Amino acid sequence: MASPLLRVQGLAKSFGGLAAVQDVSLDLPEGRLAALIGPNGAGKTTLFALVSGFLRPDAGSVAFAGADITGQPPHLNARRGMTRTFQIVQPFASQTVRENIAVGAHLHCADRREALARAEAVAQRVGLAAQLHKPAGELTVAGRKRLELARALATRPRLLLLDEVLAGLNPQEVAEMLPVVREIAAGGVGVLMIEHVMQAVMHLAQHVWVLAQGRMIASGTPEEVTRDPRVIEAYLGHGTARRLAQGAVR
Ligand SMILES: Nc1ncnc2c1ncn2[C@@H]1O[C@H](COP(=O)(O)OP(=O)(O)OP(=O)(O)O)[C@@H](O)[C@H]1O
Protein backbone atom coordinates (compact mmCIF):
# COMPACT_ATOMS: atom_id res chain seq x y z
CA MET A 1 0.00 0.00 0.00
CA ALA A 2 1.30 3.52 -0.77
CA SER A 3 2.42 5.50 2.28
CA PRO A 4 0.08 8.28 3.38
CA LEU A 5 1.03 11.84 2.50
CA LEU A 6 1.43 12.59 6.21
CA ARG A 7 2.00 10.06 8.96
CA VAL A 8 2.26 11.22 12.56
CA GLN A 9 3.13 8.58 15.15
CA GLY A 10 3.21 8.93 18.93
CA LEU A 11 4.00 12.64 18.84
CA ALA A 12 4.56 14.32 22.22
CA LYS A 13 5.63 17.77 23.41
CA SER A 14 5.72 19.30 26.87
CA PHE A 15 6.36 22.88 27.94
CA GLY A 16 7.78 22.61 31.45
CA GLY A 17 5.25 20.49 33.29
CA LEU A 18 2.49 21.02 30.72
CA ALA A 19 1.95 18.11 28.32
CA ALA A 20 0.67 20.13 25.32
CA VAL A 21 0.62 17.13 22.91
CA GLN A 22 0.58 13.54 24.16
CA ASP A 23 0.96 10.40 22.05
CA VAL A 24 -0.81 11.78 18.98
CA SER A 25 -0.96 9.69 15.79
CA LEU A 26 -2.73 10.28 12.49
CA ASP A 27 -2.50 9.31 8.82
CA LEU A 28 -3.57 11.72 6.10
CA PRO A 29 -3.82 10.22 2.60
CA GLU A 30 -2.77 12.21 -0.48
CA GLY A 31 -5.29 14.84 -1.64
CA ARG A 32 -7.54 14.49 1.42
CA LEU A 33 -9.21 17.44 3.16
CA ALA A 34 -9.26 16.93 6.92
CA ALA A 35 -9.87 19.05 9.98
CA LEU A 36 -8.34 19.21 13.43
CA ILE A 37 -10.72 20.55 16.06
CA GLY A 38 -10.82 20.90 19.83
CA PRO A 39 -11.15 23.43 22.64
CA ASN A 40 -8.75 26.33 23.22
CA GLY A 41 -5.44 25.07 24.54
CA ALA A 42 -6.05 21.52 23.26
CA GLY A 43 -2.67 21.43 21.51
CA LYS A 44 -3.75 21.96 17.88
CA THR A 45 -1.28 24.73 17.08
CA THR A 46 1.48 22.88 18.92
CA LEU A 47 0.75 19.80 16.79
CA PHE A 48 1.01 21.92 13.63
CA ALA A 49 4.31 23.34 14.84
CA LEU A 50 5.64 19.82 15.50
CA VAL A 51 4.52 18.55 12.09
CA SER A 52 5.86 21.53 10.13
CA GLY A 53 9.17 21.70 12.01
CA PHE A 54 8.73 24.92 14.00
CA LEU A 55 9.04 22.80 17.18
CA ARG A 56 10.96 19.58 17.89
CA PRO A 57 8.95 16.76 19.44
CA ASP A 58 10.01 15.14 22.73
CA ALA A 59 8.89 11.80 21.30
CA GLY A 60 7.31 10.35 18.18
CA SER A 61 7.83 10.81 14.46
CA VAL A 62 6.55 12.67 11.42
CA ALA A 63 6.78 11.20 7.93
CA PHE A 64 5.92 13.13 4.78
CA ALA A 65 5.39 11.24 1.52
CA GLY A 66 7.20 8.26 3.04
CA ALA A 67 10.27 10.20 4.25
CA ASP A 68 11.07 10.71 7.94
CA ILE A 69 11.09 14.48 8.52
CA THR A 70 10.94 14.49 12.32
CA GLY A 71 12.55 17.67 13.65
CA GLN A 72 13.45 19.00 10.20
CA PRO A 73 13.30 22.79 9.89
CA PRO A 74 10.25 24.40 8.23
CA HIS A 75 12.09 25.67 5.14
CA LEU A 76 13.21 22.15 4.24
CA ASN A 77 9.69 20.84 4.78
CA ALA A 78 8.33 23.61 2.56
CA ARG A 79 10.77 22.54 -0.16
CA ARG A 80 9.42 19.01 0.11
CA GLY A 81 5.90 20.35 -0.32
CA MET A 82 4.50 21.03 3.15
CA THR A 83 3.42 24.60 3.83
CA ARG A 84 1.57 26.05 6.79
CA THR A 85 -0.38 29.26 7.31
CA PHE A 86 -0.55 31.18 10.57
CA GLN A 87 -3.50 32.28 12.69
CA ILE A 88 -2.19 35.85 12.76
CA VAL A 89 -1.71 37.01 9.18
CA GLN A 90 1.29 39.26 8.69
CA PRO A 91 1.71 40.33 5.08
CA PHE A 92 4.35 42.82 3.97
CA ALA A 93 1.90 45.70 4.29
CA SER A 94 3.53 48.18 1.92
CA GLN A 95 4.15 45.60 -0.81
CA THR A 96 1.42 44.85 -3.31
CA VAL A 97 -0.73 41.74 -3.14
CA ARG A 98 1.13 40.46 -6.22
CA GLU A 99 4.54 40.93 -4.58
CA ASN A 100 3.36 39.25 -1.38
CA ILE A 101 2.16 36.18 -3.26
CA ALA A 102 5.38 36.10 -5.29
CA VAL A 103 7.31 35.59 -2.02
CA GLY A 104 5.76 32.12 -1.86
CA ALA A 105 6.48 31.45 -5.53
CA HIS A 106 10.17 32.26 -4.99
CA LEU A 107 10.56 29.00 -3.07
CA HIS A 108 10.89 27.11 -6.34
CA CYS A 109 11.50 29.91 -8.78
CA ALA A 110 14.41 32.34 -8.70
CA ASP A 111 13.22 34.45 -11.63
CA ARG A 112 11.28 37.51 -10.45
CA ARG A 113 9.12 37.88 -13.56
CA GLU A 114 8.12 34.26 -13.45
CA ALA A 115 7.33 34.49 -9.71
CA LEU A 116 5.12 37.52 -10.34
CA ALA A 117 3.35 35.72 -13.20
CA ARG A 118 2.76 32.72 -10.95
CA ALA A 119 1.38 35.07 -8.31
CA GLU A 120 -1.29 36.16 -10.79
CA ALA A 121 -2.38 32.61 -11.48
CA VAL A 122 -2.62 31.87 -7.76
CA ALA A 123 -4.56 35.11 -7.13
CA GLN A 124 -7.19 33.86 -9.59
CA ARG A 125 -7.61 30.65 -7.60
CA VAL A 126 -8.30 32.49 -4.34
CA GLY A 127 -10.36 35.36 -5.76
CA LEU A 128 -7.75 38.10 -5.39
CA ALA A 129 -7.18 38.82 -9.08
CA ALA A 130 -8.83 42.25 -8.88
CA GLN A 131 -6.64 43.30 -5.94
CA LEU A 132 -3.20 42.44 -7.28
CA HIS A 133 -2.02 46.05 -7.41
CA LYS A 134 -3.21 47.01 -3.94
CA PRO A 135 -0.79 47.33 -1.05
CA ALA A 136 -1.45 44.30 1.16
CA GLY A 137 -2.00 46.62 4.13
CA GLU A 138 -5.19 47.89 2.48
CA LEU A 139 -6.86 44.47 2.35
CA THR A 140 -9.83 43.69 4.60
CA VAL A 141 -9.52 40.85 7.12
CA ALA A 142 -11.15 38.51 4.58
CA GLY A 143 -8.72 39.72 1.90
CA ARG A 144 -5.75 39.07 4.19
CA LYS A 145 -6.96 35.55 4.83
CA ARG A 146 -7.12 34.97 1.07
CA LEU A 147 -3.65 36.43 0.72
CA GLU A 148 -2.30 34.06 3.38
CA LEU A 149 -3.82 31.17 1.43
CA ALA A 150 -2.38 32.49 -1.82
CA ARG A 151 1.13 32.86 -0.41
CA ALA A 152 0.98 29.27 0.81
CA LEU A 153 -0.42 28.00 -2.50
CA ALA A 154 2.30 29.79 -4.44
CA THR A 155 4.84 27.43 -2.86
CA ARG A 156 3.12 24.63 -4.82
CA PRO A 157 2.39 22.47 -1.78
CA ARG A 158 1.35 18.82 -1.68
CA LEU A 159 0.12 19.44 1.84
CA LEU A 160 -1.31 22.65 3.24
CA LEU A 161 -1.63 23.11 6.99
CA LEU A 162 -4.24 25.82 7.48
CA ASP A 163 -4.37 27.42 10.93
CA GLU A 164 -7.82 28.99 11.34
CA VAL A 165 -8.07 30.61 7.92
CA LEU A 166 -11.72 31.39 8.63
CA ALA A 167 -11.29 33.02 12.05
CA GLY A 168 -12.59 36.57 12.18
CA LEU A 169 -14.71 36.24 9.03
CA ASN A 170 -18.44 36.94 9.03
CA PRO A 171 -20.86 34.18 7.93
CA GLN A 172 -21.01 35.46 4.35
CA GLU A 173 -17.22 35.66 4.08
CA VAL A 174 -16.96 32.14 5.49
CA ALA A 175 -19.46 30.91 2.90
CA GLU A 176 -17.39 32.58 0.14
CA MET A 177 -14.18 30.93 1.35
CA LEU A 178 -15.57 27.38 1.48
CA PRO A 179 -15.44 26.80 -2.29
CA VAL A 180 -11.93 28.29 -2.43
CA VAL A 181 -10.64 25.74 0.09
CA ARG A 182 -12.63 22.93 -1.53
CA GLU A 183 -11.16 23.76 -4.96
CA ILE A 184 -7.63 23.66 -3.56
CA ALA A 185 -8.19 20.12 -2.30
CA ALA A 186 -9.97 19.14 -5.52
CA GLY A 187 -6.79 20.20 -7.33
CA GLY A 188 -4.93 17.40 -5.50
CA VAL A 189 -3.48 19.29 -2.55
CA GLY A 190 -3.82 17.58 0.83
CA VAL A 191 -5.31 19.96 3.40
CA LEU A 192 -5.27 19.70 7.18
CA MET A 193 -7.15 22.61 8.74
CA ILE A 194 -7.37 23.72 12.34
CA GLU A 195 -10.84 25.19 12.52
CA HIS A 196 -13.33 26.37 15.11
CA VAL A 197 -15.94 27.33 12.50
CA MET A 198 -18.01 24.16 12.58
CA GLN A 199 -19.96 25.22 9.47
CA ALA A 200 -16.72 24.84 7.53
CA VAL A 201 -15.76 21.58 9.20
CA MET A 202 -19.16 20.04 8.43
CA HIS A 203 -19.14 21.21 4.80
CA LEU A 204 -15.51 20.64 3.90
CA ALA A 205 -13.84 17.94 5.93
CA GLN A 206 -13.72 14.35 4.74
CA HIS A 207 -12.19 13.38 8.06
CA VAL A 208 -11.98 15.05 11.47
CA TRP A 209 -9.57 14.56 14.37
CA VAL A 210 -10.45 15.94 17.78
CA LEU A 211 -7.84 16.96 20.33
CA ALA A 212 -8.53 17.75 23.98
CA GLN A 213 -5.88 18.39 26.62
CA GLY A 214 -3.19 17.24 24.25
CA ARG A 215 -4.75 13.88 23.45
CA MET A 216 -6.64 12.63 20.41
CA ILE A 217 -10.09 11.85 21.76
CA ALA A 218 -11.95 11.11 18.53
CA SER A 219 -11.44 10.49 14.81
CA GLY A 220 -14.03 10.01 12.08
CA THR A 221 -16.39 11.75 9.66
CA PRO A 222 -17.82 15.14 10.75
CA GLU A 223 -21.13 13.42 11.54
CA GLU A 224 -19.42 10.73 13.62
CA VAL A 225 -17.29 13.02 15.74
CA THR A 226 -20.00 15.62 16.36
CA ARG A 227 -22.28 13.01 17.95
CA ASP A 228 -19.47 11.42 19.96
CA PRO A 229 -20.24 11.98 23.67
CA ARG A 230 -16.55 12.63 24.45
CA VAL A 231 -16.42 15.41 21.83
CA ILE A 232 -19.70 16.92 23.04
CA GLU A 233 -18.39 16.88 26.62
CA ALA A 234 -14.93 18.27 25.87
CA TYR A 235 -15.69 20.74 23.09
CA LEU A 236 -19.07 21.21 21.44
CA GLY A 237 -21.56 21.20 24.32
CA HIS A 238 -25.03 19.71 23.93
CA GLY A 239 -26.63 22.80 22.30
CA THR A 240 -24.13 23.00 19.44
CA ALA A 241 -24.17 19.22 18.95
CA ARG A 242 -27.97 19.32 18.62
CA ARG A 243 -27.85 22.20 16.11
CA LEU A 244 -25.16 20.38 14.09
CA ALA A 245 -27.27 17.21 14.04
CA GLN A 246 -30.20 19.26 12.74
CA GLY A 247 -28.04 20.86 10.05
CA ALA A 248 -28.16 24.36 11.60
CA VAL A 249 -24.44 24.76 11.89
CA ARG A 250 -23.74 28.16 13.32
N1 LIG B 1 5.72 28.07 23.64
C1 LIG B 1 4.94 27.66 24.65
N2 LIG B 1 5.39 27.71 25.92
C2 LIG B 1 4.61 27.30 26.95
N3 LIG B 1 3.37 26.81 26.82
C3 LIG B 1 2.87 26.74 25.57
C4 LIG B 1 3.62 27.18 24.43
N4 LIG B 1 2.85 26.99 23.31
C5 LIG B 1 1.67 26.48 23.75
N5 LIG B 1 1.69 26.34 25.09
C6 LIG B 1 0.59 25.76 25.92
O1 LIG B 1 0.30 24.48 25.37
C7 LIG B 1 -1.10 24.24 25.39
C8 LIG B 1 -1.60 23.95 23.98
O2 LIG B 1 -1.57 25.19 23.25
P1 LIG B 1 -1.97 25.30 21.71
O3 LIG B 1 -1.73 26.71 21.30
O4 LIG B 1 -1.27 24.24 20.95
O5 LIG B 1 -3.52 24.99 21.76
P2 LIG B 1 -4.62 25.18 20.61
O6 LIG B 1 -5.43 23.94 20.60
O7 LIG B 1 -3.95 25.57 19.33
O8 LIG B 1 -5.48 26.39 21.18
P3 LIG B 1 -6.31 27.57 20.39
O9 LIG B 1 -7.53 26.92 19.81
O10 LIG B 1 -6.64 28.51 21.51
O11 LIG B 1 -5.38 28.17 19.37
C9 LIG B 1 -1.75 25.46 26.04
O12 LIG B 1 -1.95 25.20 27.40
C10 LIG B 1 -0.70 26.55 25.83
O13 LIG B 1 -0.79 27.53 26.84
TrEMBL record:
Spans through the membrane: none
GO process annotations (BP): D-alanine transmembrane transport; L-alanine transport; L-isoleucine import across plasma membrane; L-valine import across plasma membrane
PROSITE patterns according to UniProt: ABC_TRANSPORTER_2
GO molecular function, one term: ATP binding
All residue ranges annotated as the ABC transporter domain in the record: 6-238
UniProt entry tagged with the keyword Transport: yes
Keywords associated with the record: ATP-binding, Cell membrane, Membrane, Nucleotide-binding, Transport
Presence of the UniProt keyword Cell membrane in the record: yes
One GO cellular component term noted in the UniProt record for this chain: plasma membrane
InterPro entries reported for this sequence: AAA+_ATPase, ABC_AA/LPS_Transport, ABC_transporter-like_ATP-bd, BCA_ABC_TP_C, P-loop_NTPase
Protein name as it appears in the record: ABC transporter ATP-binding protein
Biological classification of the source: Bacteria, Pseudomonadati, Pseudomonadota, Betaproteobacteria, Burkholderiales
